[in-house]
Automatic annotation (TrEMBL), chain B:
Pfam families tied to this protein: COX1
Function statement: Catalyzes quinol oxidation with the concomitant reduction of oxygen to water.
Record pathway: Energy metabolism; oxidative phosphorylation
Cofactor: record remark: Binds a copper B center.
Catalysed reactions listed for this entry: 2 a quinol + O2 = 2 a quinone + 2 H2O; 4 Fe(II)-[cytochrome c] + O2 + 8 H(+)(in) = 4 Fe(III)-[cytochrome c] + 2 H2O + 4 H(+)(out)
Keywords: Cell membrane, Copper, Electron transport, Heme, Hydrogen ion transport, Ion transport, Iron, Membrane, Metal-binding, Oxidoreductase, Respiratory chain, Translocase, Transmembrane, Transmembrane helix, Transport
PANTHER family the UniProt entry points to: CYTOCHROME BO(3) UBIQUINOL OXIDASE SUBUNIT 1 (PTHR10422:SF35), CYTOCHROME C OXIDASE SUBUNIT 1 (PTHR10422)
Taxonomic lineage from the root: Bacteria, Bacillati, Bacillota, Bacilli, Bacillales
GO biological process: electron transport coupled proton transport; oxidative phosphorylation; respiratory electron transport chain
GO CC aspect terms: plasma membrane; respiratory chain complex
Gene3D superfamilies the UniProt entry points to: 1.10.287.70, Cytochrome c oxidase-like, subunit I domain
Organism this protein belongs to: Paenibacillus solani
Protein name per the record: Quinol oxidase subunit 1
EC number: 1.10.3.-
Amino acid sequence: MLLSFTLLLSGCSSLTVLNPKGPAARTLSDTIIFSILVMVGILAVVYTLYIVILTKYRAKKSNEGYEPPHEEGNKWLEILWTAIPILIVVVLSVVTVKTTVAVEKVPAGYEDQKPLVIYASSSNWKWHFSYPEEGIETVNYVNIPTNRPIEFRLYSFGPITSFWIPQLHGQKYAMSDMLTKLNMVAEEPGSMLGRNANFSGEGFAHMEFETLAMTPTEYDKWVKDVKETAPELKEDEFNKLLKTEHVGRMTFSSNHLEFSPPPAEGHHHGGDANGNMEGMDHNELHPDPATTEESEFDNVPNVDPNKPDPDSSLDESSNHQHEGH
Amino acid sequence: MKWDEFFVTGEPLIYGAMVSIVLASLAILFGLTYYKKWGYLWREWLTTVDHKRIGVMYILCALIMLFRGGVDAIMMRAQTAAPDMKFLDGQHYNEVFTTHGVIMILFMAMPFIFGLMNVVIPLQIGARDVAFPKLNAISFWLFFAGAMLFNISFVIGGSPDAGWTAYFPLASIEFSPTVGNNYYSLALQISGIGTLLTGLNFIVTIMKMRAPGMTLMRMPMFTWAVLITCVIIIFAFPVLTIALLLMLFDRVFGSQFFTMANGGMDMLWANLFWVWGHPEVYIVILPAFGIFSEIISTFSRKNLYGYSSMVLSMVIISGLSFLVWAHHFYTMGQGAMVNGFFSITTMAIAVPTGIKIFNWLFTLRKGRISFTTPMLYSLAFIPIFTIGGVTGVMLAMASADYQYHNTMFLVAHFHYVLIPGAVFAVIAGFHYWFPKVFGFRLNEKLGKLAFWFIAISFNVTFFPLFFLGLKGMTRRTYTYSAETGFGPLNMLSMVGAIGLAIGFIILVYNIYWSTRYEPRDKTGDPWDARALEWSTPSPVPVYNFAVTPKVKGRDAYWFSKKNNEPLSDEKITKIHMPSNTGKPFILGIAFFFLGFFLVFSWWIPSIIAGIAVLIIMATMSFDRNNGYYIPVEEIVQTEQKLRGDTV
């Protein structure tokens, strides 16, 4: 029965969360199915006891005049139903900690590849995707190469939002005063829905974006196309865009990181760290020179599997803005 | 402020609400005048310090708020019943789910539980009233002022729209410029002070006013649950008080605690909110556990199984409730180790909760179970709440929560915990203790009909939401397109919601029907129950016990019936009772106006109202009214009248 239940759940591809397209989401899907099986087991025990007791001891003609006994409790039974739940909790705790650590890192098997860094930032009810390496930017859609680790760096130009592509990974908050990171890999080409999961005001329901995973060759071709054909993103245009409530898809051959650095940029520049808090206030955006930042990204040796986060050592010394580690 | 901004305009639904509010108020005023009930209202209710009457007023407010919050719920379900519905716009939907959450938790579940606490606790411990009767009235009127302040927001100035969690910076003046969130902070603040006072009052009552012989380990389980709840209240509510104060400063005085600029931290609000917010869940759930313990024990005609482990598990739950708050935002990026810690503390709560479930099952075992209305709610609680519990463990797993967070799966989970936990409990308690207060039972046939509607419709409404969550539907989403495939399950949920509404209407109709036609109960003990409250006549006279009972063990009244030993052999003497006072009511009004003026930042009126509050409190300090005595003859007469025999 349990087996068929598993098949039913995993075979049900309309349940997005249980229909993963990458290793992180697969780990989460497996965890969820495992936990459902454990819970069904627990429910089965409680429900069996419940039904048996209710049918056997209900008041009926045949037990009229029956005076129930006085029972204080039973030490051994009570120890039993304390110990077994503790064991279950221990097992689930081990699974939880293991999988939580696993999905925070670059997915296993992809550690030796250089991750593609994409900054995903939210403003009003849209998403901006900045590709620092490629020097391009998109709005409300993101294209990624398959079989390559992607490191999304998340922040917000306003209320807390939550970046979520359920078929690739679970969600993480994007906030105005600290950068968070989400590592994922798409293992098959295809279009997937991404969205903000955290309520952020009136237009929240429409805050969706398409995630299109494509083969590396197609991806390179797309980047080249964008570089050649898309317009540049100018600072005043970006400021106007930030204030707009909803827009369709947009593509640019440069990105806003050049004049409006993200919160954790302070890690590299030290002195900028505190100023950046105000920098996130969308009324005054930092007019930083572009070139130093760009080369900064390219030089980050982000591929050492033992050090998944090259920034973490600087975290405490520089300022109080932590990243997700 | 312009006057056309003062009232909410442009919404036909809101115009309808305004008209109905005005008509209802006029009808009440007319009715009171026509039947010459103003004096009665003032003498018997507005100035009362009697714990039973205060309890009744709490429950009456809670029932009205249940309908207000229920209408919100139906509107939300209607808007999402099908793809691209045009019933509510985004802003209106946001206001509706915000008020639904705040009202159901703070102005429905809490006062309902406080009402039952007020009615039952002094009776269960053999006391004449609570330790501080006047303070108790203040608690109620502060709650009432807060509730009214929150409720007028939707016609005057606009409702809060940032969710019941009011996360910053969304709830800041920058992103939420209407006065809605000012109402949120002030209404919760005023009723929160009342809650804190109730917590203190009942701790003192339970610690100091128990009948002779009632040691702590002989207390009924509901009394234990309330004691532990009150301890949680006095530790958790100060956090909310401070958080709301900082919120008010941010919104009204331009401070920057939680804003985006100048070093404000939005995550600080989330932390403070949930440091209060998670224990708050147990503030409504633990009394529910107590109510179920009383009812299950009574209707299986057995003592409660594993009494000591029941108490111990509640103590452990109360401690753990302060160590799990971060599980509400695993996705904030605090790293695997922090999330791991909070996962383990959260799952650990399942252990004491499991102990309670098994103890209830073993209380039923070898019993003689009769399926009365309160018992039906208590029995339905076990399987439904267990689903809420196991999905809670699933949500506690940080990694998996990255996929459940903010989705309908979460919404399904907490309704599966709070409805069978809190709502079934208060309805069960309402049916169970109703005859104690009013002297007649609610009709069983109608009660059972309402129960089946509510229990079945509840599952039809909320079970589909688990699947919607796994399909990727986020909470607080006012619309979705047909391609998402969310339509059919949402429609099913809407059908369930209508069933729930019918169930609650039958429940209220039952109160009306039973008041008119149900036979009066002369025994004072219609359920053949076990705790001290049933040893008094019904309706309970103002002084509760003609003579203070003596307690020799647990289930004191049960054993006094069984062994045919009276609870006390002492003679009736004159009884000292506290006098009524109108000051708590007036204080409530002053607080209401203080809050209202602050919402709109009208400084001069605010200062005047603030001074009025201080003056009323000062005059209370100089009150030298030491109460009055009820003479012996009057007590004897009352007892004879109620019991129909001599004492």
